Request: fold
Amino acid sequence: MYLDNSATTQVSEEVFEEMKPYFREEFGNPSTLYGIGRESKKALNQARQRVADAINAKPEEIIFTGGGSESDNLAIKGIAFKLAKKGKHIITTDFEHPAVKETLYFLESLDFKVTYLPVYENGVIKIDDLKEAITDETILITVMHGNNEIGTVQPIEEIGKIAREKGIKFHTDAVQTFGKIPVDVEKLNVDLLSLSSHKINGPKGVGALYIKKGTRVTPLIHGGGQERGIRAGTENVPGIVGFGKACELAANQLDEHYEKLSSIRDELIDKVLGTIPEAYLNGDKEKRLPNLVNFRFKAIEGESLILLLDAKGYQASTGSACSSNKLEASPVLTALGLDPVDVHGSLRISLSPESEKFDVDEFVDILSEAVSRLRQMSPLWNDDLDYDGVMCKKHGDDCRMC
Ligand SMILES: Cc1ncc(COP(=O)(O)O)c(C=O)c1O
Reply:
């Protein structure tokens, strides 16, 4: 049972079928004028229309990229370089994906100033903090729509309204939200929005950046003038075709999938918190994606838990795919103000529409058993302690043994 759909998803059968002809029969370069080139161009145009329709944009506002990371880079550096003469201040949050965070660190090395808004224990920013952070020098606000590790959703519409009133460009990374909750660029008041194909049952290595008409960015890849001169390079036609199809499917099935996923998620949250002692949900319970939950378990080492679950046939993760091979505490969970020891005991479960076969009761039994087993071996666990009050249940407050 694959429970790591926020890391990546399986390409769907329909998407795969749609892509196939563009590997061999329809291999033309879309920039050429003869028959097979024109066929490829037609396929690109159709995919662009499908992506645009899925987010209520116009096709000319869609730039195809090599994935979510590239879209984030293009949005942030593209605006920063374009508007550097106007100001050098950017506002973001404390827990963005590395594709945003590392891009901002790079810009700091070029003398840009960045304000990192706190996300508090519930993993959501406060609008007043944003208002206070804005200065005459602010040229860009970049705040992710849904967090990839804990699944909390930010008040993008409200942030966009403020940005627009102040004449500041606004970018959001919607890589985790698109296909899970409505992503409508008009309603969200965004100027730039990043998407990635492989999170919605499309192929890897392809994505898009929505750039609102009239918003100008400095290109990062120069060359043959493809993608309106904003992203040079012969287009990845099969990938883009697959992405287009995945967008169409995701948009058509959004409501049905939302219902299905959020009901499994809620059942999972209730059963885990109700069955396993000292288990906590990371991030706000309400303002969250329907497919993603992140728990922490007192006195547990997340990696060991992942291995025990894997041995029972469940693939989940401790954090984002990018950081799961690092031993440092997750920066996202650290940003919530959690104790670094507790951060290591976290488990991310991300569902997909195929998760309807997922038996929550059976999983929680296995999880519960794995947690107890690890706690029996853990020097940090003591059955006699009430971890909330950190007092000994057996001997009371004065206990010097437990
Ligand atoms: C929120 C978020 N932004 C950006 C990315 C990067 O996307 P890609 O893997 O397509 O480069 C990811 C991938 O995990 C993500 O979760």
Q: What stands out?
A: Residues 13-252 form a domain with the Aspartate Aminotransferase; domain 2 fold (CATH 3.40.640.10). The mean pLDDT is 94. The chain has two domains: 13-252, 255-392.
